[in-house]
Amino acid sequence: MTRLPEWLDPTPWLELAHTATPAQVRQALAGAEPGERELAALLSPAADAHLEELARRALSLTRRHFGRTVSLYAPLYLSNYCSGGCLYCGFAADRRTPRRRLEPAAVRQELAAMRAWGCQDVLLLTGERTAQAGLDYLAECVGIAAAVMPSVQVEVFPMPAADYRRLADQGCTGVTIYQETYDPARYDHFHRWGPKKDFAARLDAPARALAGGLRQVGLGALLGLSDPAFDMLALYRHLRHLRQRWWRAGVSLSFPRIRPQAGGFQAEFPVDDRFLARIIWAFRLCLPDVPLVLSTRESPAFRDGMAGVGINRMSVNSRTTVGGYAVAEGAAIGTGDAAAQFEVSDGRDAASFCAMLRARALEPVFKNADAAYREPVGAAAAS
Amino acid sequence: MAAIPANAPLPADPFRLGDVELPSRLILGTGKFSGVEAMLAAIQASGTGLVTVALRRFSRGPGAADDLLGPLATLPNVRLMPNTSGAMNAREAVRAAQLARELSGSRFVKVEIHPNPHHLLPDPLETYAAAAELAKDGFLVLPYIPADPVLARRLEDVGCAAVMPLGAPIGSGGGLTTRDMVRIMVRECSIPVIVDAGLRAPSEAALALELGCAAVLVNSAIAAADEPARMAQAFALGVQAGRLARRAGLMPQGAVGHAVATSPLTSFLGGTA
User: Fold this and answer.
1) Distance of alpha carbon A256 from alpha carbon A178, whole angstroms
2) What does the alpha-carbon distance between residue B223 and residue A119 come to, in Å, rounded to a whole number?
């Protein structure tokens, strides 16, 4: 794909997002129903002067729609085998990272260790599809997880709708899939080979997941790869498109940014804390009812400040190595670990993270789903 | 008429849902609080005898910190009304209700089916189907519905214990935006009409009771207030004021202040009064 489809192309708003005047920013803040125009203005440098007001409004909207709660999940990396060649990724196929996958017994053990500290919402991750970690393996792991976790979602390689249906049948309810960047030329540059080079196939994956019976999709762009204004406006359009077509779908947004990792990739468009906070708050103003997610890629100070202020869902106590909860892989957490996909910046355990939330009058919610009454996907599709 | 001394106790005014009598016309939701203590404090301050709790917030593992069922079960004089929030259709809601009845021992169920997880508006078709089935199965069914008087009557006909029209979308704090529809529902239903969702201020709860609603269900407005327990108390007073006003009989509206035509419309009839 060299040109974006019209429904996705943010070009009409790009100039505003780069050069909004203070008056245009004030107008955006005064809008009764903030939409794309307002998002563009709030992404512009002129909006930085209004950061405190943005934060205040993000807090009110988050509290109104999600209450004083933060929903928590944790990732479990099943495998770091990968066929992809993402320039920025510690697990890319040409890195000398040792490769392994968790066998079913080890998956059970990891999940039991996660349950022991309270986790009831797990995100299973793999790399791009490989013989070692393909659909059969993934479906088996989803089934194992669904037997012990009320909520199981995946962040894995894109697949056809029928394959997503297989995951749904095993108890998976959602998929997270970041487009990384919505700029086709830059996408092509970063994804050097393999199936991930297919921009369009990845772009359409959330829709295929919903067609396959999954209920939630998580979208995002990896901040740092391209012009953040372009990517964030396209992200907004991607979400809007999905919600129009799939009116029952839950769509959430994450805001990952490039962190130091194996391979030493440096972001060309670094996004600092102040800008990242503004991006998140601008989205909260324009999409008050959409879950906004923040991971442990971010520092404790940043996460503490964002919890309940725009952000209503967070990962906790994360390992970004394969496994790592039951069996620590080397120094599984913290700096300098070559076996991690990216560095975890917030290494606090669940108890201290929850204590921080409570000190901010926020309730940590581990369980906010129940599989006990959920229908098999085939039945739901028939209604 | 006998004199009413200041601070006299309010007249007896039982509120029944099915065969159950409740001490208060305020029903509380249990989500969105900053923690279990804040939730319990608000429930106690409200004087409510009925709270709703989502089955998906029951933690069946031992000692889970975010479980809501355990702490609620310790409250004396407060009945639980599990809700089916999270169910996508009637079949899921029925299963959720049955499971919740087993776990909580309560016959109450709030049927809540909102397939769109963003605006959380109720699906009338699925809600109707689930409510009909659960009522037949012996539940005290309180369906959360759009403010549609015809749907409300249909739900009464299949045996619901009450209907719960929304005042505005959940969590919006929009107030009683559906008042005209709610007024019709009150006139036409013989089961209680309970406004659920959208209220922001105790004055809006008072308004719902003044219009003849039997009760209100409030969650966000209390949980998201600066002081939830105080706000719960305020809602309790709003509900009492509204109910008392309803029973006392509001003065007729629009009966005074109309301009009087210079030539009376009845002059052609001749004669004098």
Assistant:
1) 9
2) 25
Q: Do B224 and A67 touch (CB under 8 A)?
A: yes
Of B56 and A287, the structure prediction assigns the larger pLDDT to A287
Strands (E), B146-242: 164-165, 194-196, 215-218
> Looking at chain A, which residue has its C-alpha nearest residue B123?
A248
Residues of A in contact with B86 (CB under 8 A): 369-370
Mean model confidence pLDDT for chain A: 90
Are B116 and A248 in contact (CB < 8 Å)? yes
Count of C-beta atoms within a 10 Å radius of residue A15: 12
Contact yes or no for A40/A20 (Cβ under 8 A): yes
Choose among B56, B84, B119: nearest Cβ to A368: B56
Helices then strands, each counted (H, E), chain B:
9, 10
Of the CATH numbers 3.20.20.300, 3.20.20.70, 3.50.50.60, 3.40.1190.10, which one belongs to the domain with range A11-327+336-369?
Answer: 3.20.20.70
| ipTM of the shown complex | 0.74
Q: Which of B2, B13, B71, B64 is nearest to B39 (CA)?
A: B71
* pTM summary value: 0.86
Residue B157, helix vs strand vs coil: helix
Buried b (16+ CB within 10 A) or exposed e, B234-250: bbbebbbbbbeebeeee
Mutate to test the interface with A, among B59, B98, B118 (most CBs of A within 10 A): B118
Question: Is B56 close to A367, i.e. CB distance below 8 A?
Answer: yes
Q: Chain B partners of A290 at a C-beta cutoff of 8 Å? A: 118
Q: Which of A312, A280, A296, A303 is nearest to A77 (CA)?
A: A296
Q: Which residues of B are catalytic?
A: 110
Q: What does the pLDDT look like over A220-265, one tens digit per residue?
A: 999 999 999 999 999 999 999 999 999 989 999 999 998 755 557 7
CB contact under 8 A, B32 and A66: yes
CB distance A372–B88 less than 8 Å?
no
| Domain locations in chain A as residue ranges | 11-327+336-369
A5 CB-side CA count, 13 A: 9
Q: Which residues pair with B52 in a beta bridge?
A: B29, B81
Candidates A243, A368, A370: best to mutate against B (most CBs of B within 10 A) is A370
